[in-house]
């Protein structure tokens, strides 16, 4: 019987959001590619790969702790155009960032420093790379105008 602990429960909750981020980036990258926005599509596909790697870290740690990974993604928020995609992707990154901070705090409280140390790079990547890039794109849309931004994102 799989082990359950507060840390495993928190890691599984985080996993569900990482899986949702991966799936959301996946569909968004394919939609963007279909619409001809090759540059944005490529970056979003890269983010999907990063989220897959994050999920892999969590799955391996849950298994190592004797738990069973819950492979059910949380709800997706699929965008219908580029601005709504960027906004929904940023929202999922902000949720993941908050969950990472909460799970890191729980790991410290329970003295699970190995899990904490595995989560810290995920937090840096989520906040410094993923969320920051999405915020940059939103600023560019504001500064350049949507039409100019979209034109800059074609191949």
Automatic annotation (TrEMBL):
Some GO term, biological process aspect, for this entry: which one?
intracellular iron ion homeostasis
Q: Which residues form the Ferritin-like diiron domain?
A: 1-145
Give the reactions, separated by semicolons, that this protein catalyses.
Fe(2+)(in) = Fe(2+)(out)
Q: Which InterPro entries match?
A: Bacterioferritin, Ferritin-like, Ferritin-like_diiron, Ferritin-like_SF, Ferritin_DPS_dom
Matching CDD domains: Bacterioferritin
Q: Which GO terms describe its cellular component?
A: cytosol
Q: Where does Fe cation 2 bind?
A: 51, 93, 127, 130
Q: Where does Fe cation 3 bind?
A: 46, 50
* Domain of life from the UniProt record: Bacteria
Residues that coordinate or bind Fe cation 1: 18, 51, 54, 127
Q: What UniProt keywords apply to this chain's record, in alphabetical order?
A: Ion transport, Iron, Iron storage, Iron transport, Metal-binding, Oxidoreductase, Transport
Family the UniProt entry places it in: Belongs to the bacterioferritin family.
Q: Which named protein is this? A: Bacterioferritin
Q: Tell me which species this is from.
A: Roseateles oligotrophus
């Amino acid at each position: 019987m799989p082990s359950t602990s507060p840390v495993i429960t928190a890691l599984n909750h985080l996993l569900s959001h990482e899986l949702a981020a991966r799936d959301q980036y996946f569909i968004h990258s394919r939609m963007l590619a279909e619409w001809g926005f090759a540059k944005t599509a490529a970056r979003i596909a890269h983010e999907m790969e990063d989220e897959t790697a994050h999920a892999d870290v969590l799955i391996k740690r849950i298994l190592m702790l004797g738990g069973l990974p819950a492979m059910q993604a949380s709800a997706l928020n699929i965008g219908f155009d580029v601005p709504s995609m960027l906004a929904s992707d940023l929202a999922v990154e902000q949720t993941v960032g908050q969950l990472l901070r909460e799970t890191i705090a729980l790991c410290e409280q329970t003295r699970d420093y190995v899990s904490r140390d595995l989560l810290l790079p995920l937090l840096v990547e989520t906040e410094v790379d993923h969320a920051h890039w999405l915020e940059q794109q939103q600023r560019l849309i504001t500064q350049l105008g949507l039409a100019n931004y979209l034109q800059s994102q074609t191949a």
